[in-house]
Amino acid sequence: MAADISAAKAQHAPHAPSVRFEHLTKTYPGGSRRPATIAVEDVTLSIPAGSLTVLVGSSGSGKTTLLRTVNRMVTPTSGRVLIDDNDIAGLDAVKLRRTIGYVMQESGLLPHRKAIDNIATVPRLNGVKKAPAHERAYELMDLVGLDHQLAARYPAELSGGQQQRVGVARALAASPRLLLMDEPFGAVDPIVRADLQREVRRLQYQLGITILFVTHDIAEALTLGDKIVVLAQKGRIAQEGTGAELLTHPADDFVANFLGLDAGRGLHLMNSDGVQLVMDADERPIGRLSGPGR
Protein backbone atom coordinates (compact mmCIF):
# COMPACT_ATOMS: atom_id res chain seq x y z
CA MET A 1 0.00 0.00 0.00
CA ALA A 2 2.72 2.49 1.01
CA ALA A 3 4.72 1.65 -2.11
CA ASP A 4 1.64 2.19 -4.30
CA ILE A 5 0.97 5.60 -2.73
CA SER A 6 4.62 6.64 -3.05
CA ALA A 7 4.64 5.62 -6.73
CA ALA A 8 1.44 7.56 -7.39
CA LYS A 9 2.83 10.55 -5.51
CA ALA A 10 6.02 10.56 -7.56
CA GLN A 11 4.10 10.20 -10.82
CA HIS A 12 1.28 12.69 -10.32
CA ALA A 13 2.23 15.21 -7.62
CA PRO A 14 3.22 18.68 -8.78
CA HIS A 15 6.24 20.39 -7.29
CA ALA A 16 5.20 21.50 -3.82
CA PRO A 17 6.14 25.11 -3.11
CA SER A 18 7.39 26.82 0.01
CA VAL A 19 5.66 29.95 1.31
CA ARG A 20 7.29 32.79 3.23
CA PHE A 21 5.84 35.83 4.97
CA GLU A 22 8.39 38.62 5.35
CA HIS A 23 7.68 41.41 7.86
CA LEU A 24 4.03 41.29 6.89
CA THR A 25 1.63 43.84 8.35
CA LYS A 26 -2.04 44.35 7.55
CA THR A 27 -3.87 47.39 8.90
CA TYR A 28 -7.52 48.09 8.19
CA PRO A 29 -8.26 51.82 8.13
CA GLY A 30 -10.54 53.31 10.73
CA GLY A 31 -13.32 55.81 10.37
CA SER A 32 -14.55 58.90 12.08
CA ARG A 33 -15.67 56.91 15.13
CA ARG A 34 -13.22 54.03 15.25
CA PRO A 35 -9.44 53.73 15.10
CA ALA A 36 -7.51 51.73 12.54
CA THR A 37 -7.27 47.99 13.25
CA ILE A 38 -3.98 46.11 13.06
CA ALA A 39 -4.84 42.54 12.02
CA VAL A 40 -1.24 41.28 11.83
CA GLU A 41 1.95 43.15 12.60
CA ASP A 42 5.47 42.44 11.33
CA VAL A 43 5.04 38.68 10.83
CA THR A 44 7.93 36.69 9.42
CA LEU A 45 7.24 32.99 8.96
CA SER A 46 8.30 30.14 6.67
CA ILE A 47 6.01 27.35 5.49
CA PRO A 48 8.11 24.36 4.36
CA ALA A 49 7.50 22.87 0.93
CA GLY A 50 5.38 19.72 1.03
CA SER A 51 4.30 20.23 4.64
CA LEU A 52 0.92 20.44 6.29
CA THR A 53 1.41 23.56 8.39
CA VAL A 54 -1.31 24.65 10.81
CA LEU A 55 -1.89 28.22 11.98
CA VAL A 56 -3.74 27.99 15.28
CA GLY A 57 -4.97 30.80 17.49
CA SER A 58 -8.02 32.37 19.03
CA SER A 59 -10.17 35.10 17.49
CA GLY A 60 -8.09 38.18 16.68
CA SER A 61 -4.84 36.29 16.21
CA GLY A 62 -4.72 37.12 12.50
CA LYS A 63 -4.56 33.54 11.22
CA THR A 64 -7.20 34.00 8.50
CA THR A 65 -5.69 37.32 7.44
CA LEU A 66 -2.31 35.65 6.96
CA LEU A 67 -3.87 32.79 5.00
CA ARG A 68 -5.72 35.12 2.65
CA THR A 69 -2.64 37.15 1.82
CA VAL A 70 -1.27 34.01 0.12
CA ASN A 71 -3.92 34.06 -2.62
CA ARG A 72 -4.15 37.87 -2.59
CA MET A 73 -7.67 37.98 -1.21
CA VAL A 74 -6.06 40.32 1.33
CA THR A 75 -3.40 42.82 0.30
CA PRO A 76 -0.70 43.50 2.92
CA THR A 77 -0.18 47.06 4.11
CA SER A 78 3.55 46.35 4.19
CA GLY A 79 5.85 43.38 3.87
CA ARG A 80 5.49 40.64 1.30
CA VAL A 81 4.48 37.05 0.62
CA LEU A 82 6.74 34.79 -1.43
CA ILE A 83 5.89 31.47 -3.05
CA ASP A 84 9.07 29.61 -3.97
CA ASP A 85 10.97 32.88 -3.39
CA ASN A 86 8.77 34.74 -5.91
CA ASP A 87 7.01 37.86 -4.62
CA ILE A 88 3.33 37.30 -5.43
CA ALA A 89 2.61 41.05 -5.49
CA GLY A 90 3.81 41.11 -9.09
CA LEU A 91 1.51 38.28 -10.21
CA ASP A 92 -1.97 38.56 -11.69
CA ALA A 93 -4.33 37.97 -8.75
CA VAL A 94 -6.97 36.01 -10.70
CA LYS A 95 -4.42 33.72 -12.35
CA LEU A 96 -2.70 33.19 -9.01
CA ARG A 97 -5.96 32.15 -7.31
CA ARG A 98 -6.69 29.61 -10.02
CA THR A 99 -3.39 27.86 -9.24
CA ILE A 100 -4.04 27.70 -5.48
CA GLY A 101 -6.68 25.45 -3.94
CA TYR A 102 -8.90 27.15 -1.36
CA VAL A 103 -11.30 25.47 1.07
CA MET A 104 -13.33 27.58 3.45
CA GLN A 105 -15.67 26.94 6.35
CA GLU A 106 -19.10 25.65 5.29
CA SER A 107 -17.64 24.70 1.87
CA GLY A 108 -18.66 27.90 0.01
CA LEU A 109 -20.27 25.86 -2.78
CA LEU A 110 -22.36 27.53 -5.47
CA PRO A 111 -25.93 26.63 -4.39
CA HIS A 112 -27.42 26.64 -7.90
CA ARG A 113 -24.84 24.24 -9.37
CA LYS A 114 -24.72 20.47 -9.04
CA ALA A 115 -21.87 18.84 -7.13
CA ILE A 116 -20.12 17.74 -10.33
CA ASP A 117 -20.27 21.29 -11.72
CA ASN A 118 -19.03 22.79 -8.45
CA ILE A 119 -15.99 20.50 -8.57
CA ALA A 120 -15.35 21.36 -12.23
CA THR A 121 -15.56 25.14 -11.66
CA VAL A 122 -11.88 26.08 -11.91
CA PRO A 123 -11.00 23.78 -14.84
CA ARG A 124 -13.98 25.21 -16.75
CA LEU A 125 -12.83 28.76 -15.95
CA ASN A 126 -9.39 27.76 -17.24
CA GLY A 127 -10.88 26.76 -20.58
CA VAL A 128 -11.19 22.98 -20.12
CA LYS A 129 -14.15 21.57 -22.04
CA LYS A 130 -17.09 20.18 -20.08
CA ALA A 131 -16.49 16.45 -20.75
CA PRO A 132 -12.85 16.31 -19.60
CA ALA A 133 -13.62 18.67 -16.70
CA HIS A 134 -16.35 16.30 -15.53
CA GLU A 135 -14.07 13.31 -16.02
CA ARG A 136 -11.54 14.98 -13.74
CA ALA A 137 -14.33 15.79 -11.26
CA TYR A 138 -15.36 12.12 -11.07
CA GLU A 139 -11.73 11.15 -10.42
CA LEU A 140 -11.64 13.62 -7.55
CA MET A 141 -14.92 12.32 -6.15
CA ASP A 142 -13.21 8.93 -5.90
CA LEU A 143 -10.17 10.55 -4.30
CA VAL A 144 -12.18 12.26 -1.53
CA GLY A 145 -14.54 9.34 -0.96
CA LEU A 146 -17.73 10.61 -2.63
CA ASP A 147 -20.16 8.26 -4.36
CA HIS A 148 -20.74 9.13 -8.02
CA GLN A 149 -24.47 9.09 -7.36
CA LEU A 150 -24.01 12.39 -5.51
CA ALA A 151 -22.72 14.14 -8.63
CA ALA A 152 -26.16 15.32 -9.74
CA ARG A 153 -27.20 16.65 -6.35
CA TYR A 154 -27.22 20.30 -5.38
CA PRO A 155 -25.38 21.44 -2.22
CA ALA A 156 -28.62 21.69 -0.23
CA GLU A 157 -29.22 17.99 -0.94
CA LEU A 158 -25.86 16.97 0.58
CA SER A 159 -24.90 16.45 4.22
CA GLY A 160 -22.40 18.81 5.82
CA GLY A 161 -19.60 16.27 5.50
CA GLN A 162 -20.45 15.62 1.84
CA GLN A 163 -20.44 19.35 1.12
CA GLN A 164 -16.99 19.70 2.66
CA ARG A 165 -15.69 16.80 0.57
CA VAL A 166 -17.07 18.47 -2.54
CA GLY A 167 -15.29 21.65 -1.42
CA VAL A 168 -12.00 19.79 -1.06
CA ALA A 169 -12.47 18.12 -4.46
CA ARG A 170 -13.18 21.50 -6.05
CA ALA A 171 -10.00 22.93 -4.52
CA LEU A 172 -7.97 20.06 -6.00
CA ALA A 173 -9.56 20.15 -9.45
CA ALA A 174 -6.86 22.30 -11.08
CA SER A 175 -4.05 20.14 -9.58
CA PRO A 176 -2.78 22.92 -7.31
CA ARG A 177 0.69 22.84 -5.79
CA LEU A 178 -0.62 24.72 -2.77
CA LEU A 179 -3.85 24.24 -0.80
CA LEU A 180 -5.26 26.78 1.67
CA MET A 181 -7.83 25.57 4.20
CA ASP A 182 -9.61 28.13 6.39
CA GLU A 183 -11.33 26.39 9.33
CA PRO A 184 -12.93 23.99 6.83
CA PHE A 185 -14.42 21.55 9.35
CA GLY A 186 -15.72 23.91 12.02
CA ALA A 187 -19.38 23.47 11.04
CA VAL A 188 -19.57 19.66 10.99
CA ASP A 189 -20.18 17.26 13.87
CA PRO A 190 -17.21 15.69 15.72
CA ILE A 191 -17.46 12.25 14.08
CA VAL A 192 -17.55 13.69 10.56
CA ARG A 193 -14.82 16.14 11.50
CA ALA A 194 -12.49 13.34 12.59
CA ASP A 195 -13.18 11.50 9.33
CA LEU A 196 -12.42 14.61 7.27
CA GLN A 197 -9.21 15.21 9.22
CA ARG A 198 -8.03 11.70 8.40
CA GLU A 199 -8.93 12.31 4.77
CA VAL A 200 -6.86 15.51 4.62
CA ARG A 201 -3.83 13.73 6.07
CA ARG A 202 -4.22 10.93 3.53
CA LEU A 203 -4.58 13.35 0.63
CA GLN A 204 -1.58 15.39 1.71
CA TYR A 205 0.55 12.26 1.95
CA GLN A 206 -0.71 10.90 -1.35
CA LEU A 207 -0.51 14.12 -3.37
CA GLY A 208 2.57 15.63 -1.74
CA ILE A 209 1.30 19.21 -1.94
CA THR A 210 1.87 22.05 0.52
CA ILE A 211 -1.14 22.69 2.77
CA LEU A 212 -1.63 25.75 4.96
CA PHE A 213 -4.47 25.03 7.41
CA VAL A 214 -6.17 27.50 9.77
CA THR A 215 -8.02 26.45 12.93
CA HIS A 216 -8.82 27.71 16.43
CA ASP A 217 -8.89 24.12 17.73
CA ILE A 218 -5.58 22.98 19.23
CA ALA A 219 -6.68 19.31 19.13
CA GLU A 220 -7.21 19.63 15.38
CA ALA A 221 -3.83 21.32 15.01
CA LEU A 222 -2.08 18.51 16.89
CA THR A 223 -3.90 15.90 14.82
CA LEU A 224 -3.00 17.42 11.44
CA GLY A 225 0.13 19.50 11.64
CA ASP A 226 3.61 18.55 10.50
CA LYS A 227 4.38 22.05 11.76
CA ILE A 228 2.17 24.05 14.12
CA VAL A 229 2.35 27.82 14.52
CA VAL A 230 0.65 29.17 17.66
CA LEU A 231 -0.43 32.77 17.12
CA ALA A 232 -1.18 35.35 19.79
CA GLN A 233 -2.86 38.68 19.05
CA LYS A 234 -2.00 40.51 15.80
CA GLY A 235 -0.17 37.52 14.39
CA ARG A 236 2.56 37.43 17.03
CA ILE A 237 4.18 34.01 16.78
CA ALA A 238 4.09 32.61 20.29
CA GLN A 239 5.77 29.36 19.23
CA GLU A 240 6.25 27.14 16.18
CA GLY A 241 7.32 23.52 15.92
CA THR A 242 6.00 19.99 15.78
CA GLY A 243 3.20 18.92 18.08
CA ALA A 244 5.66 16.93 20.17
CA GLU A 245 7.98 19.94 20.50
CA LEU A 246 5.15 22.22 21.63
CA LEU A 247 3.80 19.71 24.14
CA THR A 248 7.27 18.90 25.50
CA HIS A 249 8.66 22.43 25.66
CA PRO A 250 5.94 25.12 25.57
CA ALA A 251 7.58 28.51 25.10
CA ASP A 252 5.62 30.30 27.84
CA ASP A 253 2.46 30.28 29.94
CA PHE A 254 0.37 31.50 27.00
CA VAL A 255 1.34 28.49 24.89
CA ALA A 256 1.00 26.08 27.82
CA ASN A 257 -2.48 27.37 28.57
CA PHE A 258 -3.48 27.27 24.89
CA LEU A 259 -2.30 23.66 24.71
CA GLY A 260 -4.24 22.83 27.86
CA LEU A 261 -1.11 22.01 29.85
CA ASP A 262 -1.86 24.26 32.81
CA ALA A 263 -2.14 22.49 36.13
CA GLY A 264 -5.92 22.67 36.23
CA ARG A 265 -6.23 20.53 33.11
CA GLY A 266 -3.57 17.91 33.73
CA LEU A 267 -4.22 14.45 32.29
CA HIS A 268 -3.46 11.07 33.82
CA LEU A 269 -4.11 7.39 33.17
CA MET A 270 -6.47 5.05 34.98
CA ASN A 271 -6.77 1.29 34.50
CA SER A 272 -10.36 0.11 34.07
CA ASP A 273 -10.86 -3.63 33.47
CA GLY A 274 -7.52 -3.84 31.69
CA VAL A 275 -8.14 -0.74 29.55
CA GLN A 276 -5.98 2.37 30.05
CA LEU A 277 -8.33 5.34 30.17
CA VAL A 278 -7.13 8.95 29.79
CA MET A 279 -8.67 11.05 32.57
CA ASP A 280 -8.83 14.81 33.01
CA ALA A 281 -8.19 16.66 36.28
CA ASP A 282 -11.85 16.20 37.28
CA GLU A 283 -11.57 12.40 36.88
CA ARG A 284 -13.67 12.39 33.70
CA PRO A 285 -12.65 9.95 30.95
CA ILE A 286 -11.75 11.71 27.71
CA GLY A 287 -10.20 8.82 25.76
CA ARG A 288 -8.28 5.60 25.99
CA LEU A 289 -4.88 4.33 24.93
CA SER A 290 -5.00 2.10 21.90
CA GLY A 291 -3.18 -1.20 21.81
CA PRO A 292 -3.13 -4.61 20.16
CA GLY A 293 -6.60 -6.04 19.74
CA ARG A 294 -8.39 -2.84 20.81
Task: Briefly say what this structure is.
The protein is of the alpha/beta class.
Descriptive report:
The protein is α/β, with parallel strands linked by helices and 294 residues long. The protein has a domain at 264-294. It has helices at residues 2-12, 63-70, 93-97, 115-119, 121-125, 130-143, 160-172, 190-207, 218-224, 243-248, 253-259, and strands at 19-28, 37-47, 52-56, 78-83, 86-87, 100-104, 178-182, 210-215, 227-231, 237-241, 268-272, 275-279, 285-288. α6 (130-143) crosses α7 (160-172).
Salient structural properties:
11 helices, alpha/beta, disordered N terminus, 294 residues, 13 strands, four-stranded antiparallel β-sheet, single chain
What order do the helices and strands come in, and which of them pair?
Elements lengths: L1 H11 L6 E10 L8 E11 L4 E5 L6 H8 L7 E6 L2 E2 L5 H5 L2 E5 L10 H5 L1 H5 L4 H14 L16 H13 L5 E5 L7 H18 L2 E6 L2 H7 L2 E5 L5 E5 L1 H6 L4 H7 L8 E5 L2 E5 L5 E4 L6
Parallel strand pairs: 3-8, 3-9, 6-7, 7-8
Antiparallel strand pairs: 1-2, 1-4, 4-5, 9-10, 11-12, 12-13
Helix pairs in contact: 6-7
- The helix tally amounts to 11
Strand content: 25-35%
Most strands sheet: 6 strands, mixed
C-alpha termini separation: 23 Å
Class of secondary structure makeup: alpha/beta
Radius of gyration: 21 Å
